[in-house]
Amino acid sequence: MIWGAALNNRDRQPEVMDQPGLDPKEHAKALMGLRRINAISRCSAGLFRPIEALAITQPAKPLRVLELACGGGDTAIDLALMAKRKGLSLDIHACDLNPEAVAIAQTNAVRRQAALTVFTADALAKPTDRNSFDVVYCTLFAHHLDELDVVRLLEVMALRSRKLVLVDDLIRSRLGFALAWIGTRLLSRSWVVHTDGLLSVRAALQPDEMKSIAMQAGLKDAQIKRSWPERYLLNWAHS
């Protein structure tokens, strides 16, 4: 494993799941492994709390929520089911650039009986319909991008949202690297997950780095909180 100084700076290398031509069966197997990992990390619960708090303030109409780069759709599905249990009205949409991921997300939504709309779209494309969602969020996506594209991502999220922007991602650290090594092997048999899990931590931002990028994107009052297991949640509200 790689420790110490090797984690002081970002080391972005192409991840297997980002490469064209990945066997669809391997892709689906990897997404299943990520589903288990995300369930253990409870990132969906952390995202749901600020969304729930906002939804309570406007009970008369559904809160429109958009996930960018949704992958297999697990987080959006989790949020839809949590909202249903709590009696909250959320109109949830999710998109991904990869049509295979979108198809898997649609299948997962039907299988888990979750109401949401899934479609193909580029998370970094500037929207023509600005401020069309109350909440825009992404999870485990920022570490795939270089810093200029993270700035662009945050700008796009701010343009798309009326009220709230949320970004959940990994923290680059020795603890995070160790947890990724152990967790991916305990919770998945996918070689793709084993490989990409470690690459993800090496490419991840640290909270102070993300704070600086948020400032560059104009999200000057963004709040960043650390959470288990070695993740952060950026929370920015329109003033």
CATH topology: Rossmann fold
Enumerate how many helices there are, as a single number.
8
State the name of the first-level CATH class.
Alpha Beta
Question: Strand order of the main beta sheet, please?
Answer: 3-2-1-4-5-7-6
Strand runs, count? 7
Distance between the termini: 44 Å
- Low-pLDDT regions: 1-5
Q: How many whole angstroms does the radius of gyration measure?
A: 17 Å
Corresponding CATH superfamily: Vaccinia Virus protein VP39
Shape: globular
- Beta-strand residue fraction: 15-25%
Biggest β-sheet, characterized? 7 strands, mixed
Order of helices and strands: HHEHEHEEHEHHHEE
Structural class by secondary-structure content? alpha/beta
CATH architecture: 3-Layer(aba) Sandwich
- Count the domains: 1
Summed up:
The protein has 239 residues and is α/β, with parallel strands linked by helices. Helices cover 46% and strands 19% of the residues.
